């Protein structure tokens, strides 16, 4: 660490912090069957080990971002790491599924403090001209966590025990806290008062929307619980937007969405992560339930998809300065859509795994090009780095929940878990949906910058007044 530049230390520490959080978001999926047997959980209660993490994570991101702007991003990042580490130990020690669900909820709350501030601290540490390259490395590391969850989870569960997917966070978190305090400079946004009305409205809106998306396929999309949650979430979101337009010091100025690059980058990010999370959820299951591989074998066979992200995303970050965000977002997402469509064409229970290698690599290269470009488009579009990071990460979580919900609904309508043939019958249309989500994200990416030209807002410090400006064509 001592030989690194100050910027390099920030990049390393924020990337590892985000890696730990995002890896835990999906690593538990490959351990579900083992946890069910060990704790005697039902399928429905088991699903809450995933939902209990996702709900507070999504619901508190915007609030956490506002706290960091006012009280210090590094301070909130350290607090989030502490909460997440303690909750991880509680997960590992959980004597029942109820205790595990409660500890997972605390993990989600800690994660909400980490993610927006990791990205915001990184963006604040780099000048605009070199920010895209740093975000490319950050995307490679965090994207590898998102896509590599099945590999890590499978290896840990098969080689050790499910509790170790949580125990591994404890020494890492304890090491990160003092390193972040020493190696990451504190930063804040513009001096503004808290917006309590906005905080309450956006938190409740997020809870309603994510609750409905998570519970839709279990309770039924037409059930009063799910329909009520989705309607309440949508109404509260509209109320939040109306409140923010009138607030003297809003936590999210609605005028930012009139900046084309900000709106388009967030839309592309939402759909990008919808496709990624849907794919991460079902590709691993297809390899296990459709082709008969074990957890570790499944993770290794997803490597053509996951490793490409780690290798290509840093290179994509360098390309942003040369060609702009639009070609990378649109071109990359079209490659991802083509990869998923290819898998949908060849998928069957009697296929050879070798037939999946090329389309997995194609999809991996595509998302590797698009991910850092979408993040850079949003971060550079407005002068408030913390607000931009909080918005992007919130929509990222919404996108993930939406992607899993939509693909799961399509899967359930056409197939099931009764046999490999049943699973393939649902997997194929679900994969077509992943391709459609990626293609739609590519269309959204057309609204971002076609040529990278450093803008006045991107060049300013993020302590400038949070007013939207016309930034890029």
Basic shape: globular
Order of helices and strands: HHHHHHHHHHHHHHHHHH
Biggest beta sheet summary: none
The unreliable regions are: 452-473
User: What's the average pLDDT?
Assistant: 82
How many β-strands, per DSSP? 0
User: What percentage of amino acids are in beta strands?
Assistant: under 5%
Radius of gyration: 21 Å
Structural class: mainly alpha
- In whole angstroms, how far apart are the ends? 39 Å
- In helices, the fraction of residues equals over 70%
User: Count of DSSP helices?
Assistant: 18
Detailed description of the structure:
- It contains 18 helices and no strands.
- The chain has 473 residues and is mainly α.
- Helix 11 packs across helix 12 (295-301), helix 13 (303-323) packs parallel to helix 15 (354-379) and helix 14 runs antiparallel to helix 15 (354-379).
- The radius of gyration is 21 Å and the shape is globular.
Topology (SSEs and partners):
Elements: H1 6-27, H2 32-39, H3 43-71, H4 73-93, H5 97-125, H6 128-159, H7 164-167, H8 169-183, H9 196-219, H10 224-246, H11 260-290, H12 295-301, H13 303-323, H14 325-346, H15 354-379, H16 385-414, H17 420-445, H18 456-459
Helix pairs in contact: 1-5, 1-6, 1-8, 3-4, 3-5, 3-9, 3-16, 4-5, 4-8, 5-6, 5-16, 6-11, 6-12, 6-13, 6-15, 9-10, 9-16, 11-12, 11-15, 11-16, 11-17, 13-14, 13-15, 14-15, 14-17, 16-17
Which properties best describe this structure?
single chain; 473 residues; mainly alpha; globular; disordered C terminus
